[in-house]
## 1
Amino acid sequence: RTRRLPNSSAMGSVLSTSGAPVRWERVARFYGLACSGAILCALGVHQLANPAAKVSMAALMMLTPLMAGTVVQRSYGEPVLEAMGVRRGGLFGRWGIAAAVMPAAFVGASLAASFMVPGVRCAPGEAMIARVVAAGGNQEQVDQIRALVAAPPVDLVQKGLLKAIVVGGTINNVPCFGEEAGWRGWLLRELAPLGFWRASLLSGVMWGIWHAPLVIQGHNYPQHPVTGIAMMTAFCTLLSPSMTLLRWKSRSVWPDAVFHGVLNAGGSLPLLILAGGSDLTVGLTGVAGLLVLAGANLIILKLYRGEISPMPEDTWAPKD
């Protein structure tokens, strides 16, 4: 039996797999607020000259999805934290471990896959030094990079991934929580009636486009800022099912914050190890990484042949 609620859109009823419509008006309000906040923060990044101030403004942008979800919930007089999946306990158990291990595995796999790109070779520090010099860096910065890559490449990868797990689970958690409370917390709850795959892919596209104000300035894709917007959207879309799986299986948004933090901490590792290729082909956000994420989605599809469903508290749909 299909349930139709007052003021629900026909589109929501057609796409829904649960019988409840998606509340598109709320989704539109949330997304408009999140994107407006992102644009304002990106303008700040563009205008500021101090590198530390630029980083701080970019970190503030990561909090805009949390702010957007809070404003929408408050405007309807509804609880905020519960709607965003802010619950204790999600980090303890196998899904908490998966939240730390999965992104590190993605980074390592994308590093290995990058060697399939013509011209890519193992040359620790070369690409990063070239980028620092091109940005006007000094000799002291170059020397720091050379000291950093003095160890054998295998040791660099192992230590880099371990550091990513530690930093991602601690320092990176605060700004990443701001994103995840909005995307995997508030938005995924609203899109849950669409089912696992539709909700994952749509939220991933929205998440990717939200990055555009920074990407166009060279973030992630400094060599191809315009094409980078499409690449970032593809990256976020392919990454989204893994994060939805964590969110719905753990019943908490905290594992996704850790996952995101580890991913951010380890994402620059290929730049440190590899030389050759381009920002469109190498690393986690390049074609190599997209292939790895596509493979992960095939694994999810094989392991969970039926529909992956959220717990009742992780969807807005009225309970019978």
## 2
Amino acid sequence: LSPKCFAPKAPMSAEMAAGLGAMLADVPSEMGTIFLAMLVALLTTGQLLQRRADRKTGHWLPGPEAPGKRAYEVFAAWYSPFWMGVFGVVIALQMYEDFRETEYLALCGALALPLFLQPLLFPGKADGSLPLRQRYGVKANLWLWVYSFIGNYWYTHYFYNVLRAEYTFPSWRLNHVPFALFFATHFYFSSYHVLSNTILRKIATTYSAGATRWTFSALVVLCLSYVTAFMETLTIAGFPYYAFENRRMAYTVGSAFYGIYFIYSFPMFFLLDEPGYGRKKTLYSTLVDACGAGMLILTSLDIVRLCLGIPLTIPGTLWELL
């Protein structure tokens, strides 16, 4: 990275305050109604749940029977505030104004690297004695990389066409998608999916199995998917080189559209080597699962596009420099 990238712009306080005010001003009042409806649905359904009879219940992290999965989730949880802080500093200090293709790719690649290295450097005692292909961290990284690669390569064009989104920062592009984003989504999605894992595990280990728990879990996935999509859209609003034609619609309808990703991926990623939910996956079955999730999401996005009557246009070349 060029040294001038770390030189803050001045003065910043007034610009940051104005930017934050403008960002919040774009949030439509309907969002309050949407969040209230979610809360009411969750609280109402939650009242019908029955706690499990056994005492050793209600844990957020994997138990001793899945030490490799626990090691990965703990690592990702501790790492999440770091990459979020780095991104926050870059946006707050407007360091991106001096970024070119190299800086964007270096930043995103460097922030993704610790997650790729986790199975090698911090696999946990039990997984450390296993071959790499059997370590949970390797399978989790493979699942998320395939899932995020499909998302960038294909789903981004649905944002271009349906939500009129646009990336304008300098970038090398693969299929007209900034290549740096293929790395950025890896650490974004790692944090999102570790969070969803802890919530779904807490539900599964606290309440008795049955139709009520299934319904509550489904509601949690739907609400968490929408909130995750909304929060990402809101927090990235301070970056001027990712824009929507109608940002208010991006918050309401766009969050539901983006949330389709997580409706499928949150429960499917949770099942990866989760104790009590079948045998452990091989690398091949992990790859197949990620591809299956990708196809379900792609089909759902396209059904929405067809219902809206919006044509799908995919411009660009295999590799391009902008």
## 3
Amino acid sequence: QELLQMQAAEVMSQARQALQETAEALGERRAWLPPWTSESQVLQAALVQIATPEMAEKGMHQGKGQETHVGHWLEELTGGSDGSQGRLKVFRNLNVGHKKGVPQGIKAEVDALIVEQGPEPVLRAIVECKWGLSIYGDLQKMDLLLKFLEEESDSGIAHFLDSKSELLVKLTKDVEVKYFLGMLPEGEEGGELERLLRPSVLRQEKCRMLQGAFAANVAAACTMELVEQPDEQCPIVELVLPEEQVALAQERVNLFLQDLEERMEQGRLSIYVRMA
């Protein structure tokens, strides 16, 4: 967060100048924004509220509390404080090991693995812990990780690393993914899948649609309007996307939800929410 604040301060004057030029060009309420505004990290930052140090400290405290809570949950799941019972054992905080490295966009670390012990240990489940609700994008990265492990593992054996050793586990087609969330969406009650995913879906799809808006065939159909803000705050550019682009985003979300529901019915995905 401190790095993001520092970077934002460095480009503030450039941003103000670019927005001023945009305002002057908005004769017909249409204009091109400078190229750097279409970069993924810029759009992501624009959709994230930069927290104060106090909020960051609170978030860190909540995250540690959630890790402790998940630790107790794992102990109950496996039946012992040593993380093992019978043929199941839990391994925590692991990185994905691969000699060529993990490609960008793929989940490179996991909070825990549940492994069936034996002469040839078998991976039964991947456990992910989230204090917040950033599950939509994380699920996509998890899918890419499972595909990567299946395609790149030697003879069906996946490699994971902790700070001291290497863990080799056999892959199967029925590896379950378990998500443990620390909260429900603000103002929402119940655990329906749509409500649970809505905050992270909106944030990620907004960013994706913003990036798509800079394509030549889409930009011509977009309408932009500059909204002045009080107290010398940075002006806001409102962008209205074509209906077909919004429909495509809705179709992506619908297919994603349908796939999730099928996986949950098949027992390949479980989502747990901390209620108290």
